[in-house]
Write a structure and sequence with these properties.
Length: about 675
Amino acid sequence: MTPHLLLGIDTGGTYTDAVLFSETKGVVAKAKALTTRHDLAEGVSGAVEAVLAKADVPVSAISLVSLSTTLATNALVEGQGGRAGLIMIGFAPDDLKRDGLQDALGSDPVLFLPGGHNVHGGETTLDMRALDEALPALGSQVSSFAVAGYFAVRNPDHEKRVRDRIREVSHLPVTCSHELSSKLGGPRRALTTLLNARLVSMIDRLIGSCEDFLKARGIDVPMMVVRGDGALISAAAPRLRPIETILSGPAASLVGARYLTGFDSAVVSDIGGTTTDVAVLEKGRPRLDADGAVVGGFRTMVEAVAMRTYGLGGDSEVKINDRGLKARLDLGPRRFLPLSLAAALHGDAVLSVLQKQLRAPHAGRHDGRLAVRTGLPDHLASGLQPQEQALYDRIGMIPVALADLLVTTSQRATLDRLVARGLVHLCGLTPSDAMHVLGRQAQWNGEAARLGLEIAARTKDGSGQPIAASVAALAQMIVDRLTRQSSEAILQACLNEDGAGAIDPAVSLSVDRALKREPGIVRFSLGIDRPLVGLGASAPVYYPAIAEMLSAEPAIPAEADVANAVGAVVGQVRTTVTVFVTTPEEGIFIVNGAGASERFVDQQEAFGVARRRAKTMALESARANGAEDPAATLREEIDAPEVEGSRKLIEARFIASASGRPRIAHG
């Protein structure tokens, strides 16, 4: 009899991983396929078909599928996502200046409507006339909407009414702020909602691709998704609230690292193609960021693992600063399509461009860089400005040299905007290419990597000397730079955990001397007090040197390349619900959350209703998210300061959590 197996899938920026996992035997088989952003189903099916073939088991053996992804994290780090319209109810334009909302909004449209509520849920009249006038035009300029109402966490009625009107007229996805957080702080809740709206189409396509493939393959079992705090939720939830999947991949890697190493205390660093994610395990659990996850420079209201995400990975852009007497290399934060991978996908179209540029007597400004469409559906390119559309029309599914594409200086900024929208890939030199030249990676086209490095090696520094003596020397310089930047990222995360975040390893002379082991009258040294767990497909080639630089004990598990996919299947379903009790006037108690507002004249009766509401809704939510037999716990936070000898209630919060293992299909 074939045992029940759990299928874990992780969709990263470069690779999609799949593992078959047995609760008695651990990892049974693992496989990888390139993530295909134009059609995510291709990468998913490639990885799953490969792992099924390796394990030589029928699809009937699979009883649960669980998915983790770094797509949402990568999109926010790289500033990507669809164009969203922000509707602010009861707010003023000055509110955009708070919590980074204006920066996050960029050129996306925003509309202010009269309305909103007060802290106790009382309303100011909603006026939707401006919305009705703007909707016909707005609906053709954006791919989704975000709606944020003043004190919507106390009464979401206005958000719901605006949402329904937008859906009725535009038929586009709409995210409401009350669906994402129960915390106060309107501008940051609006920021979170805006980012969520931008991610809707991307995550919807991912989950839809997985579901379509599984259905076609005859795998009819429950499907789960890893949330940013490491918990599992049913696949339906993130289609509406995709921002809950930010840090999904990193959270899954932490769960996987704990399972694969057994360490209770460790520094865990996961290097992918786009990002490096660093977190600390303490007493067997990752710490959650109570203030909300920070991704791409924005602090959201999403509860997630306390993890630092850096735009640094194997596919990071290599930037050469040749203005000083000695050239300097820097990596990231943007992801490039490595030249070796671009040539593996497109062959002579890439190689011929690089060969022609290398034969030219003089180096060109854009040598070694190409552009290619990502292959996203046309509707996701809605709202392009005329100059953006004109440039986009000149870029096809075959890479084109930037030297041929960019005629004017201003077109570079236009191209950057197309990249930020996720519509275009830039192809260029990356650490992955350097690893191909050094012989430490060999999965793509090594000739393209060599040509790219030869082109870069022609660059001269401020003294007129070549920046490297040879192609191999330049490749080693790039790898050394990744080692140093990774060490700084890990060190910064650890210093923040220690409360010493004011120290910046990138600029500290003391840290620089310690990392370089430079001799001096005063000796500087540093180290990490616990193992450094390196995860990711390239961890074995990068992390021994990184651990040595940090004087840390390296720990790279055998399944480091699929730790995210392992973490996707060993986690638990966990949901949290908060119900509030406030007192607008003496002797009146209002219960808000997990249902309609209720008014009471007895405090204990109000508290009892709030407790039952929170616990009941948490259990219902856990079951709805796929938990087999959830158990609930309740904690209370009561703000009732003593005033003139008696306690006066300001606010009471009843927070219920329910958790359990996901239910599996029994064939």
